[in-house]
Design a protein that fits this description.
Shape: elongated
């Protein structure tokens, strides 16, 4: 009962100076709002990255040319070397893809991967898009079905056939008002950026629509045999990447290690490539987001610290202004602990309300920023709880000294205070 009486007195004291209380809590409000906005945006970005990586397929192992050196020595960044070849992909197939019944089989599908932008001409229209050279295993690896027609086969890869499978966006822009089935058999001309181009390709399939992943339109693609890309479009002898699908989730780690050992041996002991699974890719791509949380969280923490100092300052002023009131309370029988509790509750209420208002402003600010800039936003309930709890802790920490000072006042001296 005494606690609730003290709480009511604390709230009444704060309401007597409403504007001062609001200004005092402003530092807490700004700090908490900043934390919520930063965490919401970073969580949204991380969720988007994780969804994008998950959409690459199941049990995926990616091999990049180039290798970022250990201990700060960078030999070559991802994609910065021309060290992966078709022969490397063939070696992986011959060593690790023996058939489902073979216990030594750790690879179920593999696709050499060549990429580049190309200008596409068809039906009197043109469109710039990404042109990927892949193998027939690519749709299996990506869990991406063909909606109309067929995907090219091994024979067409071997002969570097001029066949193409297009995404739904290509159909919409080069064959407007046409349904996907009607473009099968149509001809497109691909102008590449590698010295070749202007090569006619026949459409044999249309991929099922995958829609947008973040800001990327996954349907704005053309797939052709990787041999056709290398011989007719890009005119190069190296691969951009190699996609590998492990047999199952338990085989991913072994496949990754085995492929690394094989390529190191093939490249005469030089590790001029990078082998990553989806967990590695996720960790690498979210590391910057985590660093951003720590950086901006530290800045927001400084704001909370400043807000706490403001609370201490105002509480000290309040103790001075209410010295006679404190003396009267002590004179009529109140204990020092009652006075300490009252002032401590005032500080906690002030900081906690600031934390709650900051959470509300942070959520609204994050959603507005996400809608205005098109950024992914994912508010975090744990972050909200921690932010409010931390703001309350700031009230306890910075409110204790003024509360203790008030509790230790001598009643006689307090009653004499003018």
């Amino acid at each position: 009962m005494r606690f609730f009486i003290t709480l009511r007195m604390a709230l009444r004291a704060l309401s007597r100076n409403t504007m001062r209380s609001i200004l005092t809590a402003l530092g807490i409000i700004i700090g908490v709002a900043a934390v919520i906005i930063v965490v919401s945006l970073v969580n949204g970005t991380k969720a988007q990255v994780e969804a994008a990586i998950a959409s690459l397929g199941d049990n995926l192992v990616l091999i990049y040319p180039g290798n970022q050196g250990q201990g700060g020595g960078v030999r070559s960044g991802f994609g910065g070397a021309t060290t992966l070849t078709v022969a490397d992909a063939d070696a992986i197939v011959s060593n690790f893809q023996h058939g489902d019944s073979d216990p030594e089989n750790t690879v179920s599908a593999i696709s050499p991967y060549v990429t580049g932008r190309g200008q596409i001409l068809a039906n009197g229209l043109n469109w710039g898009t990404l042109v990927f050279g892949v193998s027939p295993d690519f749709p299996v690896i990506r869990s991406w079905r063909v909606a109309e027609g067929v995907f090219f086969d091994d024979a067409e890869v071997l002969s570097a056939a001029k066949v193409a499978v297009v995404g739904k966006t290509i159909v919409d822009n080069l064959f407007p008002d046409s349904d996907p089935a009607s473009v099968i058999g149509q001809s497109i001309r691909i102008f590449g950026q590698g010295g070749g181009g202007g090569t006619p390709f026949r459409i044999i399939g249309v991929m099922a629509s995958k829609g947008f992943n973040g800001n990327q339109d996954q349907d704005d693609v053309i797939f052709i045999p990787y041999t056709s890309h290398m011989k007719r479009i890009s005119r190069r002898t190296f691969l951009s990447q190699i996609y590998v699908q492990a047999r199952d989730e338990a085989s991913v780690i072994k496949a990754k290690a085995d492929i690394g050992d094989l390529l190191t041996q093939r490249h005469n002991g030089t590790v001029d490539f990078t082998v990553q699974d989806q967990a590695d890719i996720t960790a690498a791509r979210t590391a910057s987001a985590d660093a951003m949380i720590y950086l901006l969280g530290s800045i927001a923490g400084v704001s909370l610290l400043v807000g706490g100092i403001g609370i201490m300052n105002i509480m000290l002023v309040s103790v001075t202004e209410r010295t006679r009131e404190i003396g009267i309370r002590l004179a009529v029988g109140a204990h020092g602990g009652d006075v300490l509790t009252q002032f401590l509750i005032e500080a906690i209420v002030l900081s906690s309300l600031g934390g709650l208002v900051g959470v509300a402003f942070g959520i609204v600010g994050a959603l507005m920023l996400g809608n205005y800039k098109g950024l992914p936003v994912e508010p975090s309930t744990p972050a909200m709880v921690i932010a409010v709890a931390f703001s309350a802790a700031v009230g306890v920490f910075f409110g204790f000294y003024p509360a203790r000072k008030a509790a230790q006042l001598d009643p006689i001296d307090a009653l004499r205070y003018e």
